[in-house]
TrEMBL record:
Residues 46-142 form the Methyltransferase domain. Signal peptide: none annotated. PANTHER family: METHYLTRANSFERASE (PTHR43591), OS06G0646000 PROTEIN (PTHR43591:SF99). GO terms for molecular function: methyltransferase activity. This is Methyltransferase domain-containing protein.
Length: 263
C-alpha cells in the first residue's frame, strides 16, 4: 500500500472508527490495561506509532504513561488528542509515517504498533525500515509491542470475509453494521480488503431500528499477511532481541503481540 492510499483509508475512517467496536470506550480501557501490564507499573515514555483515533494510546495515557501518538492520517491523530482530552488524559499527537519517525535517538521506553498496522507495509524493505525506526527511537533495552491479525491461521484458511458486527450508538442512536471482504492475491500472502459500513439514515426506522434506511460506505486497503516467524526474524534483523509471541488468552489483548527488546 502506498503512503497516499493508506492515509486516505484512515482519513476517511477517522470519524467512524469507533463504530468498529461494540463499545469503543470499554475497548480503549481494556486494551490500555492489557498493554500496561506488559509495559510495567512505573510510568513510561511510550510512542504509539500507529495511534489511529487513540484506542491504545489513550488507554495507556489513562494508566499514567507519558504517551506520544503518531499516525499517517492527520485527521485520526487529531481525533486521538481530542479523545484523550475528553477523558482527562494528556496525549501529544502528530501525523507521521512509521518509516520516518520525527524523533531523536533513544527517546522512548516503549514503542507500540498495534491493530494490524504494520502489515499495511507490503514489502520486506518497508517493514525493515519501520522496525529500524522503532529501534532507533527506543532506548537500549526498550520494549517493542507489535500486534497483527493471527496470520499463521489465516494463511491456512484464506477467508473471503469477516462476520458482520453491529454497533449500537450510545443514547439510543441508530445501529451500524460493518463487515469486510478479502480478495487474496495470487502470491497467497497479500490481500485487498474492502471494508463496508452500513450507517442508518437520520430520521428513518423505529426505536428498535426496524425499517431503517441505510447508506453504505466502502473503504479499500491492501495488507501483507505476515506470518509470525517471518515478522520475528525481521524484528531480529532490525536490532531487537528476545522476540516472542504472546497470545490473547495470556495477555487479554485482542490480537497476538510480538514482544521484543531493543538490543
Amino acid at each position: 500500500m502506498t503512503e497516499t492510499s493508506a492515509a486516505r483509508f484512515y482519513e476517511d475512517l477517522a470519524d467512524d472508527y469507533h463504530r468498529l467496536y461494540a463499545d469503543w470506550d470499554a475497548s480503549l480501557r481494556r486494551q490500555g490495561a492489557a498493554l500496561d501490564a506488559l509495559v510495567g507499573p512505573e510510568p513510561a515514555t511510550v510512542l504509539d506509532c500507529s495511534c489511529g483515533i487513540g484506542t491504545q494510546a489513550v488507554g495507556l495515557a489513562l494508566r499514567g504513561h507519558r504517551v506520544v501518538g503518531t499516525d499517517l492520517s492527520p485527521r485520526a491523530a487529531a481525533r486521538a488528542a481530542r479523545e484523550a482530552a475528553r477523558r482527562g488524559a494528556v496525549l501529544r499527537t502528530a501525523a507521521a509515517d512509521m518509516r520516518r519517525l520525527p524523533f531523536p535517538v533513544g527517546g522512548f521506553d516503549a514503542v507500540v504498533c498495534a491493530d494490524n498496522s504494520l502489515p499495511h507495509l507490503l514489502t520486506e524493505a518497508d517493514v525493515r525500515a519501520a522496525l529500524a525506526e522503532m529501534r532507533r527511537v527506543l532506548r537500549p533495552g526498550g520494549l517493542l509491542l507489535v500486534s497483527t491479525r493471527p496470520y499463521d491461521e489465516l494463511l491456512r484458511d484464506r477467508p473471503a470475509s469477516t462476520p458482520p458486527q453491529v454497533h449500537q450508538e450510545a443514547g439510543g442512536g441508530g445501529r451500524t453494521v460493518g463487515f469486510q471482504l478479502w480478495h487474496w492475491h495470487d502470491d497467497g500472502e497479500h490481500y485487498d480488503l474492502e471494508h463496508f459500513q452500513l450507517l442508518p439514515e437520520p430520521g428513518t426506522g423505529g426505536a428498535d431500528g426496524a425499517g431503517e434506511e441505510w447508506r453504505v460506505r466502502v473503504r479499500r486497503a491492501t495488507y501483507w499477511a505476515l506470518g509470525r516467524d517471518r515478522l520475528a526474524a525481521l524484528a531480529a534483523g532490525a536490532g531487537f532481541t528476545g522476540a516472542r509471541w504472546r497470545f490473547p488468552e495470556e495477555t487479554g489483548f485482542f490480537q497476538p503481540l510480538l514482544v521484543a527488546r531493543a538490543a
